[in-house]
Each structure stands twice: as structure tokens, then as C-alpha cells.
Amino acid sequence: MKNPFENRKYLIGGLLILISILYVIKLLHLQIIDKSYRLSANNNVLTFVPQFPARGLIYDRNGELIVYNEAAYDLMVIPSQLEDFDTLELCNSLNIDISYLEQKLKEARNYSRYIPSSVVNQISSVNYARLQEKLYKFPGFYVQPRTLRKYSKDIAAHILGYVGEVNKKTISEDSYYKLGDYIGINGIEKSYEKLLRGEKGVNIYLVDVYHRRKGPYQNGRFDTMAVAGSDLTTCFDSDLQEYGEMLMNNKIGSIVAIEPSSGEVLSLVSSPSYKPSLLVGRQRSINYPKLIQDTLKPLFNRALMASYPPGSTFKTINGLIGLQEGVLFPWTSYSCNLGYYSGGVHVSCHAHDSPLQLIGAVKNSCNAYFCNTYRSILDDPKFNDIHDSFENWRKHLISFGLGQKLGLDLTNELAGFIPKAAYFDRIYGEKGWSSLTVISLSIGQGELGLTPLQMANMTSVIANRGYYISPHIIKEPQPAGLERHYADIDSAYYSTIIEGMDQAVNGMPGTGSTARIARIDSIRLCGKTGTAQNPHGKDHSLFIAFAPKDDPKIAISVIVENGGFGATYAAPIASLMIEKYLKGKVKRKWIENYILEANLIDEKQD
């Protein structure tokens, strides 16, 4: 008779074999395949010390070194290794308060007794040399090398930006950064952070249970070298930038200069500014709050973020649109009786010859002429109504790069403002407004708001007779996405407007030229003044220009807040900048001294 338990024997044996196989597979997985336990074990005997790369250098367009690195040091502490030490001596060596040291040590203990924490960041080479002689007296402390930014010229703060410690948000978004790392905060330092920062290396050390180093792991076989950041060559001319900042001293406003043929930004001045060295190292924590609280807003980049009515500089664009739309011709003539009068509306104008044709109207900056021109654009019978003609006018402006971000390779660029027809519908109703309602737009006033960068770029379009290259601040490596953008104005129409700008500067005395103060004997400069109404005080002084006339090398916009007429301050500043760039030096010292001695900030405060 067959044993009824015989089948159970095989079943139990099979289960035991299966369980044994599963255990073997699990052991193989834990010991050979799964690295987590090995890593966990290693972490108890190894410490990984980052090696920070040298940040990339920054040069100007002529190869002059502008930003470089200087050795600095972070004082680190491992709380478990601390022994009694002279706290007063350590604090005196570092110029810190005892209360500050005690607070940092408390934070370090709370974080971890065995993992290093930072006590004092960015110690200068001078202070480090003094500390190094005494470091043996302070067990548990050691120094980690870093670098600080240094400047050959204390200029271009809004272009260069600055470097600071990463915040928790950045750490959570990018695994490259760890607590205590540094990152570009704004300007070039931020826009080109990934190129400038390089790649961190690491040294691996054996440590005991108290996290004391016992030597390199496997003689440094698995250490990696830090890779230095890439160097950058900028488009700006440091001599021109320095000169522009000097001219704008004691004034509020901006200068933007562009090379029309390439879109390279030659100078970008925002005033008041600050010295970039103020935001380097440990003094940044002292100086930054002061700059934030300064009522003149030196951290505010007016060249990219401020929005101004372009004033009479905008007449050049309305003239071009009128020519393109066929409602204006070079010989079109309008009279001016100290202004424009229609339907109870009066736009005043200064005394000048009348009537004028288009070149003379640009030369004399006649308000009445461009009021008539603008109404002929909006009241053109080929359009169904004011909405269609207004949007067509606005489309032309957009093609000049106005009312939109130009894509400059710096942070914080704003778009300015060009109203849509719907904007006026909301205010007046769909049938409640006409060309006369928005007549202030004819002379660059009203709701228009352009940034200084946009005005310089607009000037580049005129200089190029119809196109602009995307403005950019870095020359090498060349930024991606640089394109030639065409304004939708036929190139044949620019010559008339340019001739008017030429005559505004170079016309004979007594003929109504509004910008003769900008004239340079050896350079054919073309320009247009502007006076932007300011509801909060004295009018702003504006000027756009390019030179030379037939082979433009520089296009520029200058805005001096509360400077009055365009010819008072903006025009001479632009003229001096152009002479400096094209000639290398300025001969007209009387104009230079007049600008340097002007103090509009004190006048405003008085």
C-alpha cells in the first residue's frame, strides 16, 4: 500500500529548495547588485569634500580683463572635534563678535555634530594669513578654499551683476548646488551662470567614527578635479562705459549705445549706479541693505526696466509710418502757428519757420506737423474705422522692436508699453474716441512707454535703413538666437528722416536746428531731441543719435530725468559718448566740463 505521506515529503522538500534559492538571490542582490547598503556603509567611513572651481573671467570687447578671481577662504567647523579654545583670540583674528561665533557654533551643533558647517564665509587672503598661523590652536576648525570676484575697474555693475549664496529654492530645483554654494544673482553672472561656474570636483577622505580624517581614500584614486568656468568676452567697451558713468554722475537716467551692424551693446549705463565691489564677500551683507534703502534706487536698472514717453524722438517713427502708408511725402507741407489747433484741442509748439516740409519738420521738431501727420495715418479712408487704422499703426511700431522684450542676454528686461485699440475702448467706449482723442501719441507722449534699450534699438533700425540685429551683451561665445529683424517700412523712406536728423544737428545757425549742441566737426552725427513731459516734476531730457551718417558705427539713446529740453543735457552727453567711442578722446572740453559739473540730483532734492 502507497504511503500517504510520501507526496508531502516531496512538497516540503521543494518548498525548502525554493526558499533557499530566494535567499541566495536576495543575498546576491544585496551584496552585488544593490549599492545602497554599500553606500550607506561607506558614508560612515568616508567624507566627500567638494573642490570649488575658479569662476570664469570676464573681458571687455577689446580684450581688457574686467572681472577676475581672488583667493578667499571659508572657516568650517566639525562640532564633535571641538575642544576648549580661546574664543576671544579667534574672534579677533576674524574681526567677528563673540555672540556671532556662539550663534554659528550653536547652529552647527543643531545641524550635525559630525558633518562640517560653515562659520565664517569668504575670508580674505590677508585675514587668512593671520588666521593660518593660529589655526592649530582651534581643534575642530579647518579652512576650505574659495574664490571672490575682483574688478579691474569698479564699473558696469548693472551689466556684470554679482555673486551670492544660493537659497533653499535654488537647491531644491538644481541638484548641482548645495548649502553654502555661490551663484550668479543678476546681470552676466546670472545669465551665463552655467558657463561661468565650471564643474565642482571632490576629494574623498577616510574618517573615523568622530569624523576625523585619516587620509585620502585609496590614495585619491576616486578624487575628481574641479573644472574651471569658461571665460566670456563681452560686447561693451570698458573705457566708454567708464566715461558714460562719469558723465551721468549726479544725474538720474541712462545711456544705451549699440553697434547697429551687429547688435552688440557698447555701453549700458544706469544712473545712479553702485560699485560692483560693494557686493563682494562678507561686506555684501552690510552694503546690500544700504543700497536697497537708498531712495535713488541704485540697484534699479533703468536702461532695461524704466519706461519713459519717448517725446519728440518718436516723430522719426511717425514720419516713417506716414511715408509707408502713403499719407505723407517728403514735400508734404503743414503750417504751424505756435502749435496745433483742432476741435478745442491745442498742442503747443515753439516758434520756428512755417510752413515746413518733412525734413524741416524733423530739423525744427514741429509738433503741429506731426499732429497732422498722425491724424492722416489714423483717419486714412482705406481703413474701416479707427480700430483698424490704430492697430495697423501699432503693428508698425512692433516691427521696430517696441512694446516687447528684445531678448537681451541680461536679466530683468521689461517690454515697455504700446496701447492697443481695446485700451481706449475701455476708457472711452468703442465709439467714443478718435484720432484727436489720442493726438498726444503723435509727439511721443500720452500712454507710450519705451525703455532706453528700445529707444537705442529703434535708432539702430534708422541707422541701418530698416533692420536691427538682436541686441546682446556677450560677444564670445556668441549667444544663440541672434537674428536680423526687419521693420515693415520700405528702405527708400529712411533717407528723408535721416536727412532731417542730420539737419537737426548740422544745420546752419539760426535755421531752427534743435540739436546743434551735439555737432562734432569731424563726425557727421544725425540725431533727434526729445522732451518728455513728467507729471511728477521737471520734464525729462532725451536724445537719440547715430554716427557716422553713411557708415554708422554707434547708435545711442540718452535719458536724463528732470533734465528739461533734449538739447540741455541728453544731446551733449550723447555727442560726447560718440566722440569718445569714434575718436578715443574728447576735444570739446567746455561741453564735457558743463556736463560733469551739472548736479541734477541735488537740484531735485532742493
Give a verbal description of the structure.
- The chain has 606 residues and is of the alpha+beta class.
- The chain has two domains: 43-76 and 145-234, Alpha-Beta Complex (Penicillin-binding protein 2a (Domain 2)), CATH 3.90.1310.10; 238-275 and 300-605, Beta-lactamase (3-Layer(aba) Sandwich), CATH 3.40.710.
- Strands 2, 3, 4, 5, 10 and 16 form a six-stranded mixed sheet that branches.
- Helix 10 (238-247) packs antiparallel against helix 20.
- The longest helix has 28 residues, at 6-33.
- The N and C termini lie far apart (122 Å).
- The model has no long low-confidence stretch (mean pLDDT 91).
CATH topology of the largest domain: Beta-lactamase
Structurally, the number of domains stands at: 2
What's the CATH superfamily of the largest domain, by name?
DD-peptidase/beta-lactamase superfamily
Class derived from helix and strand content: alpha+beta
Shape: elongated
In this structure, how is the largest beta sheet organized?
Answer: 6 strands, mixed
Write down the Rg. 33 Å
**Architecture per CATH nomenclature, i.e. the level-2 architecture of the largest domain:** 3-Layer(aba) Sandwich
* Percent in strands: 15-25%
The counted number of beta strands is 20
Q: Span between N and C termini? A: 122 Å
Q: Report helical residue fraction.
A: 25-40%
Give the C-level CATH assignment of the largest domain: Alpha Beta
Give the mean pLDDT. Answer: 91
Poorly predicted residue ranges: none
Tally of helical runs: 22
